[in-house]
Every structure is written in structure tokens, then in C-alpha cells.
Description:
Layout: E1 4-9, E2 18-20, E3 27-31, E4 37-43, E5 48-53, E6 71-77, E7 82-89, E8 99-101, E9 115-122, E10 130-140, E11 142-147, E12 150-152, E13 167-169, E14 171-174, E15 183-191, H1 193-196, E16 214-223, E17 228-231, E18 235-239, E19 242-246, E20 250-254, E21 273-274, E22 276-278, E23 286-288, E24 295-301, E25 305-308, E26 314-330, E27 337-343, E28 346-347, E29 350-351, E30 362-366, E31 373-375, E32 382-390, E33 401-408, E34 414-418, H2 421-437, E35 438-439, E36 441-442, H3 455-468, H4 472-489, H5 514-526, H6 530-549, H7 582-603, H8 607-628, H9 640-648, H10 655-671, H11 683-692, H12 696-704, H13 712-716, H14 752-760, E37 762-764, E38 771-774, E39 784-791, E40 794-803, E41 806-813, E42 818-822, E43 829-832, E44 835-842
Helix pairs in contact: 3-5, 4-5, 4-6, 5-6, 6-7, 7-8, 9-10, 9-11, 11-12
Bound molecules: beta-D-glucopyranose (BGC).
Amino acid sequence: MTTITELWLENRRGGKTIGIGEAAPRISFTATGPGPFDLHFTRDDGRQETSTVTDTQLVPWPFAPLSPREGGQLTVSSSQGVLDTRVEAGLGDDWNVDFVSPSTSAPHYRPRPAYLLRASFDLSHLTRGISRARLYVTAHGVYELELNGTRIGDDVLAPGWTSYRHRLRYQTHDLTDALTSGENVVGAWLADGWYRGHIGFDGGLWDIYGTDVALLAQLEVTTIDGLLHRIPLTWSWAASPITAVGLYEGESFDARLLRDTWSTAAFDATDWAPATTLTRAEFSARIEPPTALPVRQIEKIAPVSVDRQPNGRIRLNFGQNISGVLRIRLRAEAGRTVRLHHAEVIENGELGTRPLRAATSIDAYTARGSGVEVYTPRFTIHGFQYAELENWPGDLTDGDVEAVVIHTDMRQTAWFDSSHPGLNKLHSNVQWSMRDNFVDLPTDCPQRDERVGWTGDIQVFAPTALRLFAAQGTLTGWLRDLAFEQEDLGHVPQFVPWIECGFPNFPTAAWGDAAVIVPWEMYLADGDTRILAEQYASMRAWVDLVDDLTGNSGLWSGGFQLGDWLDPTAPPEDPGKSHTDKYLVATAYHVRTARILADTAALLGNEEDTKRYRAVAARAARAFQDEFISASGRVVSDTPTSIAVALVFDLFENEGQAARAGKRLLELAEQGGFHISTGFVGTPIICDALVLAGSVDYAYHLLRQEELPSWLYPVSMGATTIWERWDSMLPDGNINPGDMTSFNHYALGAVASFLHATVAGLESDAPGWERVRFQPRPGGGLTHASARYDSVRGTASIRWARDGGTLTIDVEVPAASTGVVVLPGTGREIHVGPGRHTITESFRPASDDPAAPVVGWRKPEPVGA
Ligand code: BGC
């Protein structure tokens, strides 16, 4: 009995299949048992094709390729079940309209208003019924659409942020059921967004991509006789009720200016001005469909507490740090302005807004004074857990204010649970920090005047991101931008899209290495080599550049480096001042990425490059060993991060050296009293390194630590997301004095992978989870742990529980995979096939798990003190 449980195209799991870019999209599905499976495609013109397959993954499109706009119904069936989806190609390059702009070069010293654009069109000349209507849309700026008075689609901040000079994504909207046969009106709200709004830190920049916001919208209607009608749109524009808006600053909305019917045929728009045409040919960017689902309103959260402050403001605590906005409902007299303030934390009884820097994050709503009014800001977004309402009319009643969580719509793919509430909360915090920072692109933080795609952050977090949510779509698009920026700059910048706001623009290890590591991790997660083929030139260009920078010696020993960024011993104002040698980190990464590149070349069948990059990697490994490892296995700059990279990246010449270094790592962990002493580079791998050094128990001691610095210290302080600094909030409740202090950065949350792979013991043993490794490692006093991963081959899961000296392990192997269970203690391996299995084994009771040895810990002095 085989049923089909999920069906998707390319990497769009859970995704939209209308307006796709591929003419021959690969088909994937999960099934509860083996095939064969029948694929059936019925085109809109009635033509039918079928094919029988046994594979479930990335099945090449077995039908004739789709031409632009062509669509049909795809069905997958097995003995017991059927799943189907509509598949429809996008516009390809068949654009025949121009951009229309309501504004030319408005001044930029403060947030500018949003505009309304409007086009009315009559369909009464179409004598046959409409079988399909599509609006293909994008913008310079951010837009929201209406048709005949009703919102179209649910995308937020569309078309999102890409390297606009190179790539602009369009959305495909289905208007079939929304059009009327007579006069229709399409309307667009349009604001600055990333295109020309205020973006970046250290003052930031305005008008980065251009001085005019503009809309590009092509409307096409197909009638039941199969004829395609391009409907010309003539646009006019007017001011909108959004009088000022910036992604960082917030939105000001004057409801008195809202004319309810503006996007309906009943509205008289004679006083609207004609929009200016900006020819499409003036802009060189490729206009392409998105590779991921859009940013959306994902959920709404009610406040957990509401308090009136002495200054009259109403403070709300939502109990969760999120990215999003408030939705308010109020009754007020015309002209009353309510201001909405946002912050992540409370400091000294006040909203802690200092860390927001220039991102003031204040929305303002001016009431029109007519009954109940509801408002949700459209074109701004904030990172917050707390909000204050200033000048609110009267008291709040339930439902008056909610927090709207906004981020890229991603399918959750992983779950973790254990008997340790602190670790469970830590895991939840990592999930939230990922959600809050996947707002169209992978960002560092969602709240301050930054929110940019720092390459180092996603480089260390990619394996975790790909485990927790179906992030391939987002990362595929982002990597395209990375490659474009890299081509322009000659190196991979520290963040993508790159904007020149004063940050040192140099090749930097661990950050630039994202070009190689992110695609590789994507390949490991789903077994698809296409991303490697697509990114190959970028991957190679990065490794070649670093090789050049080392003077072909393999030793990266000069130039700007961020190193083990935010090592807790670095002073707050100098987060790059780590105990770990920056060039050790740089050279270690060079070895790692050269090796990955060689493996990639081999997978892609490029023998010459395989040889070449094996040689580059070997030379770099030799250089690393000569420079940083003594013959007996001591590692220069005797820090946990140095040893961790050497162990995890496999940089020792022989096992003796690795064993000696491992011993030293355990000593350092003890001497540090099992507190964290690693930054962005060391933290994601320190637990793996301790396991490689031979002590799962030491990893548990580190994981379970609650004193500063540790993963659980923020949890003990009530954190609901991962903080940028271990002590973003100091024990006395003050915010860390560093100018760069976020309460929502995912990088240090990369440890969630360890919770899944090692604590619960669920790991892939071959790309795409073709083989699953179940290797539970009970310890730390935990009595049970479980993890589940909805892989591209189906669900893999594990649960282990200790009852006295009996360990019970339940595993689930996806239908299209095999599994191996590795027993703790003995290391015995049991091979298992698809389905569920239970194994019982003797293992020490949780009460016998070793306690952390006490060695007289002393907080290390800051570097240079
Ligand atoms: C960002 C980081 C980033 C770092 C590198 C910070 O401002 O928030 O996460 O990787 O700078 O310099």
C-alpha cells in the first residue's frame, strides 16, 4: 500500500507551481512505499502524456517542455493514492510592457511617501468567456496589488530584495475568478523598499539602485477559444495615505487620506496624474521568477501582557521576539495619531531601543474617525517582542492589537525534543531566529539598521537552516546574487546583495567561503547536483582568488579578516579581537573549500579540475600543518576554536597529532569551566570537535552550562531567539554596551544541528538522505531525546529513551532510503530498511551520567587587557 505524501517541482517544497521559470521542471514526491508511480500531465489544450517511474527524486520532466505560459495538471499516482498539482510556466522573456513611475527623484533626507497607481480596463470586447487571466508584476521598490477593490495575492514586501542591477523577480498572479466582464480596475501601492529607501549601517545609503520607484505589470487574458489577449494598461497615479515609509524607520499612515473605492470602477480618478513611462530597455536586470515562496504574514500572536505605563503609553509583551508588524484595531476621533514603538527587550523599565541604531521602528496611524478602523503597516518591518502604543484612545480590549509574524514562507522540515527543557527552548529559539532572519534573504538580524545578507552568518548556519526548514529556494536565489556581486567586485563580499556603506570591502575567510560551502550543504541536504553546477563558476572563482592571495603557497597570511568573530573574550567594542589567530582560521577555510571544490568537480565529471583542486587543497593543508601544528599535535594559538577547526576540518597530518590536540581541547574545556570561549567560527563546531576529541560528555557539559558565556545563559534570561552576543543582555539586565548588539542573530544557533545529529542521533549518511545514520548518544542526564526530519525521500525519525539501564531506540527510515543504527557504548551497527524499527540495548542510566569536573574556572581576561 503506497500512498503519495508530498509532491513538488524543483526545490519548491510546499511551493507555488504557477509562473515557474523551468521549461522542464524536475518532479519530486515522497511516498510511503516503493513504486512504480504513474506521472500524468494534461495540458490546458487537452493533450495528455503519461510516464511510469520508479524514482521519487528529481525525476526529469518526462513530457514535452513547457513553452512560456503553458500549463496543465500534473498527477502522480501509486497503487493506493494520487496527488496532483497545477504546473504553469512563467512569461519567459516575453515582456512587452514598460515600467510606470509615479515619482521622479523625490528628495531623500527622510522617508518618502508611498504612491497609488491605478489602471482601468474594459473586457467587454472579449466575446468568449475567460479561461485564464494572469498578471505578471514586479517593481523597483515594493508593491501591493488590488483588483476591483480587493487585495490580490498575499505577498508582503514583493518583489523582495535581490541584486537589482542584475536580477529582479516577478510574481505571477491568478486573476481568473476576480475579473468582471465589463470595466475592471487594477491598483498598486508602491513604496521605496530596498530599491531607493534607506538601507545599511554607519549612516546607510539612499537611492542605492535608482531614484524612481516604478511598477512593471503585464496583464494577459486567455479566452475559452484558446486565444491570448494582452490587455494594455494605462496608469495614473496619486498620493497615498502612507505619508512616509522606510523599512527601518516605520510607516506613517493617515487614514483620512484613504479613498476606499480607489481601486474600483466606481471611483472618479480624473484628478490623478498620468504615470511616467520608464522604458524596460533602460534597465539591464534579468527579470525572472522567484526560486522560493514569497514573504507572507505567517501567523498572528496575541500579547501575553498589557500594561499601562506612567507616561500613559500601553506596553505589550508578545512573549516572542519576531520579525513583523502590529495589526491594530481602534475607534478614535478623526485626526488622532497613535504611534507604535517597537523593541526587542526592556532595559531599566524602558523599551531598549539603543540597539536599533538608526532603525527607529515607529509606525504612526492617524484615524479617520469613522467607526472601527483596522490597520496593518504594509511596507515596513520590525524585529520586536515588545511594543508601546502612544496616544491610544482608551483601554485595549482583546484582539485590538496583535503581532503579525512576517517572513519567507518555508515548510518546516525538522523537529527536536528532549527531557531537557533548556535545550528544547534553545532549539525553539534557533527556529525563531531562522524564521525572523529569512525575510526574503538570509540576513544577520531583523531589527537594527543592518538586516543584510552577511555571508559568514549563513555560511556557518547553512546546515542548520537546511535541516530546520526547506530553505533551498531562498538560498538558490541568494547564491545567484552572490555570484553576480562576486563578478562585479572580483571577490565574494561580506554581505549579499552588496552595498557600499563603508564596510571594508576585502576578501574575508569564513564569510567569502559561503560561495563554496552553502551550495555544498544544499547538495548534501537534498542530493541535487544542479546547484553545484549552477554555482560552479562562483565556487571556483573564490578558491582561485584565495589561492592567488596565498601566493599559491596555501597559507593565507595577510589582509583583512574577521576571524573568530565575537569570541566572548574580545572587548565589546572590538568583536574581531579574538584569541584565535585570524590567519589560522583563514587557512583552515581555504583547505576546506578547496577540498569541497575538488569533490564538486569530481561530481560534475570535471577530472582536470578535480586534480587541480585536490592539489590546491593538499598544498593548503601542508601549509596549515607547517605553520600552525607542531609535530606532536599542538596547535598554534592554543584556543578551542583553533583546535576545533583543525579537528572538524580534518587538518592534522596523522592520528597521533589529532589525538594530542583532542586531549588539549578537553583540557581547555575543563579549564574554561565548560563555558563558551568560541565565536562565529568555533561555536558552530565546538560540540562536534569535543565528540571527535573523544568526549560526548564534555559536549553535554558545554551544552548544559547556564552561566555566562553559554547557550543556555540567554535561555535563563528569558530569551526567545538566539542573541548575537552571549551577553547581549548582561546579568544585571543592562544591554551590552557594544554598539552592535542584537537579540536575534542565528549564527550561534548553528548548534541546533548538534542537537539533531548527535543528541538525538539523526543524521544523513549520504547526500539527500539516501542512507540515514541513527546514532544516539545519551548523556547529560537526559532521559530521552527525539528528532524528525522530513527529508526529500520522506520522513526519517528517531526517539531514544532511557529507563534505568535500558535504552530503547525507535527509528523510522524513509521508503526510499536505507538506515544504520549505531549503538552507543559498543558502536555495534545494525542495518535497517524502510519503515519503523525498535531496538533495545543496555546502557548506563541517566543518573550515572558523569558530572562536569571542576577545575577552578576563572573568566579569561579580555584580549589586550
Ligand atoms: C553583523 C554580523 C556580521 C558581522 C561581520 C555584523 O554587524 O551583524 O552578523 O557577520 O558584522 O563584520
